[in-house]
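Sample entry (1170 residues):
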Amino acid sequence: MGGFALSLGLVMMAAWHLQIPGLLQVPPGSPPMRYNTALALALAGLALLLLLHRRGQRWAWVPAGGVFAIGVLTLIQYLFKVNLGIDQWLMTDYITPALYGADGLHSGRIIEPVEQFFVLVDRPIPGRPSPNLAFSFTLAGIALLLAGVPRRWQRWPWKTPATPDLPPDRALGLAGFLSFGVLAMGIIGLLGYLAQIGDDHTWRYLTGISIPTAAGLLGLGLGLLAHALARHRELETPCWCAGGAGFGMLMASVFLWNALRSWGHQVGAQIPALANEVDAAIEPVANLMLIQGMLLAIVITGLVWVDRRLRSRSRVIQRLNAQQAATTSALESILESTADGILVLDSTMHLTHWNQRFLKMWGIPAALAEEVRSGSGIPNFYPVVLDQLQDPDQFLRATQAMMANLEQKTMDVVQLKDGQIFERHARPQWQDGQAVAKVLSYRDVTEQRRAEAVLRESEERYRSLVTALAEGIVLQGADGVVQASNERAEEILGLNMGQLQGLTSIDPRWRSIHEDGSPMPGEDHPAMVALRTGQPCRNVVMGVHKPSGELTWISINSQPMFRPGEDKPYAVVTSFADITDRKHIEEMLFYEKELAQVTLHSIGDAVITTDVEGRVQYINPVAEELTGWSQGEAQGQPLGEIFQLLLDETREPVENPVFQALRENQIVGLNGDTFLVSRRGREIAIDDSAGPIRNRQGQTVGAVMVFHDVTHARQLTRQIFWQAMHDPLTGLVNRRAFEHRLEQAIQSTQVESGTHVLCYLDLDRFKIVNDTCGHKVGDELLRQITALMQAHIRKTDTLARLGGDEFGVLLQQCDLDQGLRVADALRETVQDFRFTWDNHVFTIGASIGVVPITPQVEDLESLLMYADAACYAAKNTGRNRVHLFQPDDQTLAQQQGEIRWATRITQALENDQFCLFAQPIRPTQPSYPAMDHAEILIRLLDNDGTIIPPMAFIPAAERYDLIGKIDRWVVNTLFQHWHQVQPAAGQPPIQYAINLSGHSLTDDRMVDFLKQQFEEYGVPPHLVCFEITETAAIANLIQASQFIQQLRSLGCHFALDDFGSGMSSFTYLKHLPVNYLKIDGSFVKDMVSDAIDSAMVEAISRISQAMGLQTVAEYVENDAILQRITALGVNFAQGYGIAKPAPLLGPCLPPVTRGPLAGDRAADAAPADW
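Predicted structure, serialized as tokens:
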């Protein structure tokens, strides 16, 4: 029907758009179907189709709302004489003038109150349906909307008897009720056309209903009615059908009423003179028939509704009777099928009902039961029961007490003589809210009691077993709640049974953690997993915090429990052991293992472990890098496959130390010249050791080898060895290697025939180049000299640099004459060499000492002493010459004497045999500041008490590098007793002058030593004046200048001693920032009689004054010299004419006072330094 309405509406809408009047007027001359009528039919048909489909029901309200809107808005236009514009919204009128021309409508017959319901020629409304049709669409729209309302959205306070579990679909019922109105409108329209009673189809000149419209309404009403009936869930006719029948009767009455009025209209039209009389006669009858129809509709509706209610109640009663019969039958079956004996006693203790199980349990014959049922056998019933009881009196008392209160529920135990045990349960029987009887249920629990006794015994046995277990046991129900536990579980968890019961594994108070330390949710607990999955959980390790906060580690096993035939656990048993100690041990072992692994991975040594058969088990990353084998590739391989060793020199295979360690069961090492051949063929020098691995029983189970790459170290060792044996500047053999070769040469002369020659060479004037141009230039000179000398010796000979500008040449298998020729050739080569640097040309020479190495040479020390003496002799005899050692040489004797002095100096320093003397230095003018001056001089106390002057041992000290130690001793001794050698408070202080050698000027550590001495003893630096000789200063000009500047920054003073002895004194003076010039004594002592000496002193004094320096005259031996230097402007005087040196510190004499420093002028002369 929905499809019919939809198709009809769409066809008529197309006819309007295509202007086909033949389709719009069926039959011809009838009212046409209006455009909005066709639209409403199409929407209604679409809504009805959507209601038939589950997915479309949610969208059915859209077209249904459109139908409702068309009907309501059209009625509003009719009632309130308004035009909302919906009638000409989609279509303009082109058919109304043709239908309602000037002759087509008798407007004079139109009654004024209904005038707005007509369509006039001057007011075309092409889309507006007639009022009765608008009313029909309104009903249809409401019905369609209600039909689409789901039952779950409806809230009704009542239920129907037929479906007490579901609320009635009131919306659907109302929709069905309204469908009768839509159906009646269609039927009335069709009947008006069929009966042709006046203009029935026009409803008294109203815009009429066309036949297609009436047919569409009829189909739409039938569709709505069928849909409502199809969705009705009750068995009987829906209640709204009664209202529908009455509504239909009402519509029929309206049809008759309209028919009479239309008939009167036709008569009035045919006989206009009688029109009023006909209307007056017919109108009361028509109205009476309308009222009768309305009353009849109400009566019919009431009768149909009453009949439906009576039928419904009858069905309910039948259903209740059937249910009661079924219930009674079920109860009978239950009573007979139960395992309990059932007996019902009324309030007078009469037996009203029992089941066969009761009779069987008590052994009551069927005949006696029938007598009891008839009422005659009750006296015989009780004796049968009481005779079977162990205590009949107790049974009767309990029964009477039970029946005294019918509302009370009781339970007691009845014991029979034959050992049977019955449980008797009493429950009240209620009727109208009152207890009228007692239902007694007898249950044979004999076997149950026996089983319970056995079970108690078994439980006690298992309880003892569980209590004795070292593991904790916990029983949990299906919900995870703890039901029981043993004492060990309480000890491990730190909770008693009262605290455990009621807890579950998911309780957050457990604060459980996984083995890795992460929190363990309760759902992951093994017990909960076993309950959830039905599978056991084995050996799960977890941590549990006790209430005290202590962490306990446990190992858990959870086993689910099943009832027969069930696959869901009803409980779970969990056993767990305290493994805290084991966990700690495992952590310690893991730590140790991890430490070992990390150590093996991080150490710089390579490590390989093998089993007892020598197969690789482990190889660390360093070993992987050195061997070229990875852990995965090497594991299980024989060690010989991945570790191949060769000797460095012979390249022969070497036995692997692992096999030797396994064989000898001890630690072994490799030869020092072994190298490893890697997988890639790379040769790596290694150093290794291997040892056996033993188990607890001491059995060897494998071996470990540790090795490391010593390629660089071996190269470095070789380089260091080379450097240890060679001079880094020239690349020549150094003193150590040279001495070793000399020893070999000496030994060879003892066992073989032949002679060797030693040449000891010292360069002349090398220091001038070094001081003038710097050390780098001096180094370059040495390299060039080395190349020249190497060209004049054989490959079998040895040229060595022994230190500084000293060289040694060993001529192997060379006689003395040939050796002298080679030595002279070397001298000439050096002499002829011209060294050029920065526009300076330097000429140097070489002093060479030659010693033959014969069997008479005793040892190396003697040989070197001979060579040094010969070289010294070459220097002392004019330099740049060759001197052959002779055993009776005086120079050698002198040198040997110096060697003895060097020994005595060393002993004197060790035994504190040196003494300090002081010689005063006086100002020549009384206007000088009030501060005394004195020079510190050194003496040596011989073993026999003789005081030895410095010139006896100073040359030996300088030659054998002992002068620096003497300088340090002087400074330390003076500073240590500084306060003893200063005058008492209130007197002018004394400034002491200390002599420093050229060696100290070039000692890089001397300045730091002096600073440390100043700081340690608190000596004021301005009271110390350091004296350096002009020769030493010029020889070490740069170092001397830096030395002076560093100490002057502390406040120290400096004096340039023996000034004037050099040839270029004034040239170098400007580079030496000194305070005093000590005029050389050779000019002073004869200046009174020698005019040249006097001029020299005067010149030095004048230049000193010009440079702001003060002068000191040495060797002032008399007053004439003193007067002369005073006249020349010399500032200070020193000498025997002023005061002799006097003991100051040391073993010579105890410290002196100022008296000796001011001592008398003496007539004899003495040196003024040291």
